[in-house]
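Input sequence (275 aa), recorded before submission:
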Amino acid sequence: MNETLTPEASPAPEKGVADILGEAFRLYRAHAKPLLLTCALLFVPAAIINSMARAAILGPTLAIAASADPAAALAGSLSVYMLGLLGTLVTAFFLYGIIVPLTNGALTIAAADRILGGHAEWREVWMLLFRRLGKLLSAVIPAAIVITLGCLFFVIPGLVLALFFAFVSPVVLIEGLGGRAALERSTTLVRSDWLRVALVLMTFAVVRFVAQLVANIFVAPTAIFVGSLLSDLFTMVMLPIPVLGTVLLYFDIRRKRDSFTNDNLRTDLDALKGA
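Predicted structure, token format:
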């Protein structure tokens, strides 16, 4: 039997971060298969491409770093560091700047459908997302660019921008906004409750850290492709929890700010289906 997580129609007390993440976990546990398939459609091929890119970037320098020649080893170590930084930026832009927000958008639709008692499968979810793909990309790509640039300047500006743009995908798919309007709307919502948003987003960092730890335990550092792929796939398995937490927090903030109810959500979802 499927669980239906139904927010209260009348103004409700603000949910704690633990409540939000617990609700996300229950939603994931009840609908693990369709939610994982929803993630896998885009995330698996993206993870393979990302791992191939990292192996191509870092592979040649590892051999130099392992050289018996001290000068060559030092040069190789510096090359590994610089190219590792480049690989991290590529990953941040491609995987976490584009792929994760698109997956976030698909899970937004899936979460909204489940909250309303629906049973949409991954195919229907992605078909609905494609109806607003242009609007979504018009917001996601600029956000990814400025976040990546922000990370070049001592990381902190990039993290702050990532925080402000946390609700871009739900804003596009639920409210129908795009481009700059979606970025501004996300920023407004986050500013109204930034601490809860920041705490929920920290779970992304925890998931990524654990994924990297698992990869380091089971895969040798020189196996760049396998290690990167394993890390990304483990991230994908855990990804629905922080993403669903972000979506549920978006709904909770809107209930507090906009008196948002299930009826409003149903109207917005029907508008998406009819777009």
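Checked by second reader. The chain is about 80% helix and 0% strand.
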